[in-house]
Every structure is written in C-alpha cells, then in structure tokens.
Amino acid sequence: MSVWVRKSVMAAVAVAAVCASGSVFAVKPPAETEGESSDVAAQREAYYALRRMNPYDSNFDSAKARLQAYNQFQQVLLARSTGIVLPGPVHTESWQSIGPAPITLGQTPTNATATSRSPVSGRVSSLAIDPIDNAVYAGGAQGGVWRTRNNGASWTPLTDFLGSLAVGTIVVAPGTHPLNQATLYLGTGEGNFSGDSYGGVGIYKSTDSGHTWQGPYGQAQFGNRSVATIAVDSANANHVLAGSTSGIFGVGGVLGPTLPVRGIYISNDGGATWAISASLSAHARISKIVQDPVVPTIWWAGVSLIAPASGGGLLKSIDNGATWSAVDGVATGLPAIVGANGVSGIARTWLSVSSGGASSVIYLGVSVVTSPGKGGRLYVSTDSGATWTNKPAADGYCQGQCWYDMPVYSPPETTTTVFTGGAGSSGALPSSFMRSTDSGGTFVDKMVGIDGNSALHADFHAITSWPGQPTHIWVGNDGGVFHSDDNGDHWISANTTLQLTQFEGCDLHPTDPSQAYGGTQDNGTDSFLGSTAWTHSDDGDGGFALIDQGTPTNVTHTYFNQSNYLIGAAVALNGPASGPADYLYFSGDYVPGGQNNGINPADNVLFYAPMALDRGVHDTLYFGTDHLYIAPSFFANTVAATNTSIVYTALNGGGGFAPPVPPSTFPGAISAIETIANVVPGSPANTILVGTSNGRVWRSTNAGTSFTETDMTPLVIAQYVSSIVVNPRNPNNVFQSRAGFTGAMPAHNVRVSNDGGATWTDASNGLPDIPVNSLAFDPVFSNQIWAGTDIGMYLSADGGATWIPYNQGVPNVAIFSVKANGHTGNVLTCTHGRGAFLLKLDTIFIDGFDGN
Questions:
Q1: 565: closest CA among 586, 541, 593?
Q2: Does residue 586 have a pLDDT over 50?
Q3: On the CB side of 43, how many CA atoms lie within 13 Å of its CA?
Q4: 653, 705 Cβ separation under 8 angstroms
Q5: What DSSP assignment string belongs to 585-621?
C-alpha cells in the first residue's frame, strides 16, 4: 500500500520548473513516500468499492453470487469437455503465462546503503513451512497458494482453479507425516482490510501436501469473510480453530445483512464442520490464534476493533478454545480494553508465542485507536501473559498502516529475538522491517542487506522462520517472498518464478509481439520485453498504462490520483524499455510543486484515473476526472518540455459528466474513455464516448464540444462503467462493460450499441452476475469479443449474443485489463493477482483491425 513517487527535492523542483519564458513545464513528484496517508488510503478504498458495487439495500449475498458464477463457469467447461455442443469459439489456443516472474530491479529501497534493487512479484499474505517435505508455501492476496521445494528458486501454483484465490492464511498441521502427505489448511479471503482484499468461500483442506484439495468447508460460517488465521491442536489433529475477519467479496462494496458472524470457530472433525464459540461477543475480528506451547489447553487470540463496549485486544482460553475471556489491559500493563467513549481502544493486534521454559513468552503487536499508538506498539510478556511490558523502541513500527500490515514474530528457539514488519522507510527507525535481539529493548533496521546488495519491499504481512533454524527468516510483503540465512543481515529474493503481480491496466505494442506495458498495485509500472522477467519501468502505484500505437517509443502512465494533490500522467520516450530515470516529466496538476497544466486540482477523480489515446491521432491524449480533458500533441510537447508545457483543455464546454444518480447524492467520475477514429486522416476524433463510475455513458459527435447522455443501466444500482470499446472493423459496433453485482439476470454487465453509441441494449446472455472489468475485440475473427471478469475470461463467438468461458490456462482470478492486437495476433490479459497471460493466435487478421 506504500505510495512511491518520483525522487527530487521540492524546493529545487519548484525553481527548476520555471524557465526563461516563464512557462511551467512538466515536473515529477517527489520520490519515495513509503506509507499511505489516511485520505489516500480512503480514496483507494472508494475506488475499489465503486468497481464492485452490489445491491446494498437488499439481502443480496455477493459471496454466494460469485461462487455461483464460478460453479456456472466450471459446469460449462465440464459440459464442453464431455462432448456437449455449446456455442463456442473457433479458437483452440491456450493462454500462455508471461509473468511478471519476477519484476527485475523492483520497487525496493535505493536509499540507505542499497546499491541494487531486488526482484519482486506481488502481494503475499501468508507463509507456512514444512521441513519434512522441505517445502515453503506462500499465499497470494489474489494469487492462490504456491509451493517451493528448493528454497525459493522455483515455485509451483497449487490452487489456480479453486473457488477463491484470495488467501487469508495457509497452515501446515503440526507433527510428523510421510513425504508428500502433509495436511494443509487454506483459509480463503484476504484479511488485510485493503480495498482489494477479496473475501473468500470458506476453508480448503489437503492431505497430500497441496496436490489435491477438498472443500470449501464452512461456507455458511466463512462465506464473504476472510479466514485470516487457523491453528491446529498439536495434541489432537482433528481439533482445529479458525478466526474470521472482514472480507469484501469482489472488493469494496457495501456489505449486506447476510454476512456470517465474525469470530473464533471450532472444528472437532478436522475442518469438515464448524461452530462459533458461544462465549464471544458478536462480530469480533480475529487476526491471530495461537496455541500456548507450554500449556496446550491454553489458547490466545488477537482481536481487532469490534463493536462498541464489547472488548478487544487479547483473548485467552484455558479450556482448549471452548470459552474465551479478555485479558484485562489495565491490570496487566496492556492498553485499556475500552476507551472513555465506550469504544474498544485497540484497533488491531498480532501475536507470536514461544516457550520460555516454565512460562510462555508472548509478543503482542497493538494498534490503538488514538495517536501515537496508531503507528503500532509492541508489548512482551515473559510470564504466560500475567504481566506485560511496553517496548518503546518499537513504537510506530507499522507507521499508521497497522490496519494493513503489522506482523510480529519471534522464532520459537530464540525468544529474545523479535521481528516487526509494517510500512515506513529504510535508513531510519522505525523502519518497515526491524530486528531486536534483546527482547524488544532496542531495534535495528533490516530493510537493506548489510552489503547493500539486497533489499526488501515495504508492507509486510507475514514473517516466519525455518523450524529448527531460527536465523533462517522468511518474509511475505507487497513485493512477494524474501528469505535470509543470517537473521536478516542479507536477503535473497525468492520471486524468480512467483507470478502474483496485481495489475490495474496494461497495453500492447502495435507491432512487436514481445512487448507490453502495465501498471500495478505498489510495484510501479512495468514492461514485458519477451521474457517472463519483466523490467521495472517506473516507481509509484501504477494505474492506466498506454503505448502510442503510432509511435511506440512514446509511453505514458498514471500513478495514483488524488484531488488537490496529484492528478495527471507520467511520460517517457523510450517505449516499454524505459526505466525510472527516463520518466522526466509529470504532466498534470501537482499541488505541492505548484504545477498546473490545465486540470482543475479540485476535480473529483478516481484513484486510478482513466486516459486514452485518440484512435486516429495517437498523439492526442484524453484524461478523465469528473471532467474530460484533451491534450493535443501530448508526446510532441513532451519532447519540447523544457520550454513548453503539456496543456490539458476541458471539453464539453467545461461541464462535468457524473452528477449523482438518485437516490444517491454522491457524484461520480469518468471511468472509461473511447474514441472513434476520424475518417479524415490527421484529424482527432469527432465521436468521443465516456463512461462514469456511477453508471452513465455520454457521447459527443462534435469533437467534444458538447455531449449527450445515451445510456444508464435501468437497474437497482448504477454500475461502474469499466470499459468502452469500438469494433475496429465496424465503428458503429460499440460495447461497454459494467463492474458490479446487480442481483438480477441478465446482469446487464455487457451492453452493445450498433449506432456508434447513440442507443444501447443488453448483451450479457451467458454471463453470470459478476463484475466485468474489460473488453477487447478478437484480432482474428470479426464476430468475436473477449470479456475479462472477476472469475476469469469469457468469449463471445457471435457478436455478443452469447458468452462462454475460455480460461484454457487462465486461473480463476479477477482480470482487470484485456487488449488485442491485429498486427501481431496477440490478446493480452492482465490479472489482479496472477500476473499476465498472452494468447498467441495462429491466424492474423490485419485488414480493418487497427491496433488494440
């Protein structure tokens, strides 16, 4: 979740930006703001919520809807495999995984002593180690479970086609087992409280080291939630405890009343059935459950912020998990359980428990509601939880992001060593990753290896050690998996074949089939240059990413966008091969730098603002807030940017596009932009189409002078317009996709126009009630169109009349962007959690198919 933007000193930038003529040319924002302010985090949350809206005023269960959609997907595939003839594609090709695995020279610190960046992949939410099989298991935020048996040199995905790839926890049952017969528990639903922390479908179990899986179990107890922690009784393998917390199915959205109660659940039959502990208050968010290593009938649980006056913080059971009581903070030295206003004073907790001989040693990470505790505090007990001592040296260890990343870990063999992980920077304390060898008395920064040749990514979610080897440390963070053989003094990136990148948008090179370009969550903007090892192109959050289809050495992308702070796009002129140093200019509005290129800084704007290049004049850029802006000669002006600003001009007479849709009182923002190429060569489009986050579609036929609203889905909710695409062979044939759940069939998640966007009808027959995020026309067959959904890929072989699944190598994961290219015959799909996949078609249809 760290926000990384370009390096420079603002005072120097402000001076340097004013040239002799007095014009302000495009500059770049400052480099590394590791950690995310609350307003930036809130805007990110709002963005994902809009993309996954559901009928919030009903009993609609989006978890059930998604599982039904997944089952429908699988049933159709099964019917096709058994010979039942269904409407289907002529294509027989399979999608090829193209990475990133890894992203080279990734977004890891270059300050402090680091001299080289480390390879990265994507967000890892959980780690588990099985020394018998010599296996490490990693759980991706939306990438499923992966296994390595060679210390991270290579990885194998194990759960690509389960009902959910969002991992809350992965656990190896304790005790001995034959080779390849470890018992694993997979809790689905990511529990990190981010806007794109997908909810789950329950718990899966494997008894053969992840080769096969049974479940999901506990759908009624865990559906649409996150199972963030599972603990197996060391004395009774059938006795299993699980803790659930918030999980939002399909990210964001308003949670309906059908959600199961959060809390501690118990199974006495190895996970087949589950019942909640009756002693808990309703809706307790459980972040961690651990069994006491000294007295195994004692269990500990960390509780996050829960209902007013109902307690929180640390829970203890002395009867094997049957009943629980809150540990009294006032009496023991912990923060008060309940604040003066009657609300739980503890927002989130994290536990690590080891044996100290006669007593257990417990480390407790705490985020309290009031400052300065929001940045994280560390407490330790050496007498089995009777008394606690605060360790001030760790104060602020999760830097205000404890809701997202705050793990604490002490290797069981060395109870005086403790590690903390969170947000923040490197080179100063508190840092993102710290180590103490004196029980938390003092800490040192361990983000960067002592030789300066290795570094960790920020935002930590998992820390563990190899059993019996307390200095062999493994960590999972927003950049993937890393491990150290010397207690964190040196780091090894274990991301070589780990494909977990969360894309936001991507694009294809117009003529070179081995080049692509995409923006990612917390791993910058990156480039495919023919190898599964992608190159890191630019820092920051990456959003929309575009390649100039006329001059592919021109590329542009967005970072995050925030009103009255940062709105606009970065530019480079070395194509996808551009590196961070090549992005010399930021074009847009950057309030701290005093830069305004014509965009109103007060505009309502999406966290990832859409932009598009004109289909006819590729050097003309359109950029969307709640207004539509045009920047002619966008790249040409970049070349001359030492004297000339890139200037954006508002279209539609300066009018907005996203007034509230009653009964809502909240305005929207532009979410999709498309143009129909002008028949006059060299002239920008006359027909421009825009879609908004609150379900509106607008059309101009006079080059943007004025717009007319042409479509708003007639349903109970105003679905987010996620993409608009024009048929390259027939400009009157236009499709739009809608993201969100409607609770109705048809879901109206794909709509079609045959008069250039003037009127629209439903075209979603065969699609389940699931968010559709992106569309692309097939580059080979003229009547076919691809749809990227929250559960994988669909294809229509009859112009949108019907749809069928076409995964063939693409996992059950949210697809955020689909692009097709008629010159190379490629279709690119970029997922939010499993990287990118390429379909290389056998026949190339060039005539009438212009680019992607």
A1: 593
A2: yes
A3: 20
A4: yes
A5: EEEEEEGGGTEESS--TTS---SS--EEE-SSSTT-E
544's CB contacts (< 8 A; 6+ apart) are: 504, 505, 519, 557, 558, 569, 608, 609, 610, 611
Q: Are 541 and 562 in contact (CB under 8 A)?
A: no
Helix (H) or strand (E) holding 492: strand 492-493
Strands (E), 21-99: 32-33, 96-97
Instruction: Give the number of C-alpha atoms closer than 13 A to the C-alpha of residue 522, restricted to the C-beta side.
Output: 31
pLDDT score of 790 more than 70: yes
Q: What are the b/e assignments for 122-132, b being 16+ CB within 10 Å?
A: bbbbbbbbbeb
Tokens of 265: 């659940």
- Strand pairing report for 264-267 and 240-246: antiparallel
Q: Which residues pair with 434 in a beta bridge?
A: 420, 445
> Residue 625 contacts by C-beta under 8 Å, 6 or more apart in sequence?
561, 567, 599, 600, 603, 604, 605, 609, 669, 670
| Token pair in block for residue 589 | 């509005």
> Parallel, antiparallel, or unpaired: how do β-strands 792-796 and 460-466 relate?
unpaired
- Cα distance between residue 29 and residue 550, in whole Å: 28
261: its two tokens: 């109660």
Q: What are phi and psi of 551, to 5 degrees?
A: -135, 85
pLDDT in the model for residue 250: 37
Q: Which helix (H) or strand (E) holds 71?
A: helix 62-81
- Confidence check: pLDDT of 738 > 60: yes
User: What is the distance, to the nearest Å, from the Cα of residue 753 to the centroid of all Cα atoms in its chain?
Assistant: 32
53, HSE (Cβ side, Cα atoms, 13 Å) = 24
pLDDT at site 249: 42
807 has pLDDT over 90 = no
Are 54 and 743 within 8 A, CB to CB?
A: yes
Q: What is the DSSP letter of 391?
A: -
Maximum alpha-carbon separation in the chain: 85
pLDDT category of residue 307 using cuts at 50, 70 and 90? very low
The C-alpha atoms of residue 129 and residue 481 are separated, in whole angstroms, by 13
Tokens of 553: 């050495």
For the chain, helix (H) and strand (E) counts, in that order, are 6, 60
| Strand ranges for 62-174 from DSSP E | 96-97, 103-104, 124-130, 135-140, 144-148, 156-157, 167-172
Higher pLDDT, 249 or 66: 66
Give me the mean pLDDT over the 346-355 stretch. Answer: 88
Residues 166/141, Cβ–Cβ less than 8 Å: yes
pLDDT bin (cut points 50, 70, 90) of residue 21 is very low
Q: What was the pLDDT predicted at 746? A: 86
Mark residue 440 as left, alpha or beta (left: phi above 0; alpha: psi -120 to 50; beta: remaining).
left
How is residue 482 written in tokens? 């890393």
